[in-house]
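Crash report, auto-generated. Payload:
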Amino acid sequence: SAVISQKPSRDICQRGTSLTIQCQVDSQVTMMFWYRQQPGQSLTLIATANQGSEATYESGFVIDKFPISRPNLTFSTLTVSNMSPEDSSIYLCSVEARAAARYNEQFFGPGTRLTVL
Amino acid sequence: KNEVEQSPQNLTAQEGEFITINCSYSVGISALHWLQQHPGGGIVSLFMLSSGKKKHGRLIATINIQEKHSSLHITASHPRDSAVYICAVTGGGADGLTFGKGTHLIIQP
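Recovered output after restart:
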């Protein structure tokens, strides 16, 4: 299994500022995924982050708005830049576990609840 | 892009009832996940399926690859089963997950 922690767990930010969310995994993983869940909505994939390469963004998400770092196999950050109230969401990181009995199982961090005023 | 449809959107049932949640998708996949999300937002993976059927305690998940359909069943439902149940699919590799809108389940005592 994989245990994932995220920081901060929640934050309230002012419009126009930026927030960096950290995701730490207790084991080495190749791919980490960042998702957003807007109020009352289901989750949407923002980007896939591989160690040593540029993150791959889904349609509707751009690097200037959501820069991602992946410096090693256990850590990633997502920055929400120049925030507006529409960015108020829960942001979750996720990994796939590829251990023998749990191939392809998904593990999710506890989420970062962001409110932009 | 895969379209994932879940039904019902909302379900209220009495304790002990047999619960079925359905999920259909539009494009072939490598795996389908059933996830549980509690009011605080935390998400737990219940099952990962690529074929057939899996059982864990009172939960059963089935998938029909030809029909692009999966079901999640809860036997002897209990108020602690109250949560949002989400179906998600992936084509594998770096695809990430595509999610259904979720089924909000309430089990009343």
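Post-recovery validation: Chain B touches chain A at residues 30-31, 33, 35, 41-45, 48, 86, 88, 92, 94, 96-102 (CB under 8 Å).
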